Amino acid sequence: MAVERTLSIIKPDAVAKNVIGQIVSRFEQAGLRVVAAKMVQLSQSDAEGFYAEHKERPFFKDLVGFMTSGPVVVQVLEGEGAVLKNRELMGATNPKEAAAGTIRADFAESIDANAVHGSDSTTSAAREVAYFFAETELCPRTR
Ligand code: DGI
């Protein structure tokens, strides 16, 4: 399987619950490597730009409000099949529907405050990684 990169965001609810380390552990245990990481307080325009594809959706305002409600941890994860692997670790968007043992089943409260974001395709991963990181900020982990 091809080595891919995917963008992960640990959302404000999970940061507030102090479970950053527990979530990163799940990525590491699944064989994903962190190749870039930073904690940021998103501005309204940061969040609107990131979620531009949802601009017309009824929940857009709430989503932007939530994503700017506190700091987030933005990471680039690398590994074989990283995009799908991260989506499997996350679980369904609605934590009530998320499979047992997934990050959202274990840490998320609601469809708004759902603990994590992960790119849904290699195409969106490329856009999302570039939205937050310069290529020079990605650190090779091959050694
Ligand atoms: O890729 P996901 O985060 O799993 O889901 P998505 O890209 O369809 O939606 C992005 C975020 O928008 C999601 O994590 C939470 C929010 N969202 C999605 N669908 C709904 C929603 N929020 C509300 N309140 N209601 C929804 O139906």
TrEMBL record:
Chief site of localization: cytoplasm
Q: Does the keyword Coiled coil apply?
A: no
Class of enzymatic activity (EC top level): transferase
What is its subcellular localisation?
Cytoplasm
In the Enzyme Commission scheme, what number(s) does this protein have? Answer: 2.7.4.6
Provide the GO MF annotations for this entry.
ATP binding; metal ion binding; nucleoside diphosphate kinase activity
| Nucleoside diphosphate kinase-like domain span | 3-140
Q: Which domain of life is it from?
A: Bacteria
Record SMART domains: NDK
Annotated ATP binding lies at 11, 59, 87, 93, 104, 114
Q: Write down the InterPro entries for this protein, in alphabetical order.
A: NDK-like_dom, NDK-like_dom_sf, Nucleoside_diP_kinase
Q: Name one GO cellular component term.
A: cytoplasm
| Keyword Transferase part of the UniProt annotation | yes
Q: How does it assemble?
A: Homotetramer.
PANTHER family referenced in this protein's UniProt entry, alphabetically: NUCLEOSIDE DIPHOSPHATE KINASE, NUCLEOSIDE DIPHOSPHATE KINASE DDB_G0292928-RELATED
Q: Which family does it belong to?
A: Belongs to the NDK family.
The protein in question is named: Nucleoside diphosphate kinase
Q: Which species expresses this protein natively?
A: Pseudomonas jilinensis
Its lineage reads: Bacteria, Pseudomonadati, Pseudomonadota, Gammaproteobacteria, Pseudomonadales
